Amino acid sequence: MNDTTAQQNMERSHEAHWIPDKKISMENMRGHRFAEVALFTGNSQENAVADFYNSTGVDDPTPKRFATLDKDKVSQENKAIGAFLNPPRYWMFDEFRVFEAGDDREFNGIKMTWMGVVDLASLKKAVIGGSYFAGYIHRDNSYTYNEGSEVYLLDAPDGEVFVMQSYNAHTDEGLVAEESPATLGSRLTLPEGWKFRVKTLDRDLVVSQGKTGKLAHVMQDDLLNRYQGSDGGNAFNYVP
Predict the structure, then answer these.
(1) Positive or negative torsion for Cα 47, 168, 54, 200
(2) Domain locations along the chain
(3) Distance CA 122, CA 49 (A)
(4) Cα–Cα distance, 236 to 240 (Å, whole number)
(5) What pLDDT, on the 0 to 100 scale, is given for residue 157?
(6) What single string gives the DSSP state of each residue in 208-232?
(7) pTM for the full predicted model
């Protein structure tokens, strides 16, 4: 990997982990608990990539089970240069489709499936590096929010609309199980020009990467809830 770029390493990783014709299709997903592990490979900050493994559909990572994972040990056992542990959180859509999935792997007994790869710089920007900074992650899936469902939206100053895809329940500042994300409007510390709103859908909202080159524009708020952006309208079948 000495002379490779991050893009080349992403393509190489996709080829190594993707299993042709393996797909995931699930319904009744709102409130479904999941967790993720990302494994870093590469030999520099410029070409490092992160392969994402997700427990959806193959395991239930309770907080107690996930707490047994150690980042350094996970890295060593998987011959990675680093790892990112994304503790249990909950999906906020109704239907889930994964069009490209890969190999299964266990992390201290928690089974997860490869679901995508991202360059490490984008991961740090969108997820690890802070809040309200969107970055692109390579994946091929779709989320459907059914007609009549309540969705939680962030309007960015440039006009892009972000819909909550998962909420955080693993920190003291996160939501508790009985609390609705609709209460976030008074709890978020929004940067200037940002707006949080709640909407009940009058038709299905489908979020996908079919028109974005398999790139999802994602970010998190200051309470670590995650969102995907409309990306100029290309990622949504319509902008609510």
Answers:
(1) negative
(2) 6-229
(3) 9
(4) 9
(5) 97
(6) ESTTTTSEEEEEE-TT--EEEE-TT
(7) 0.88
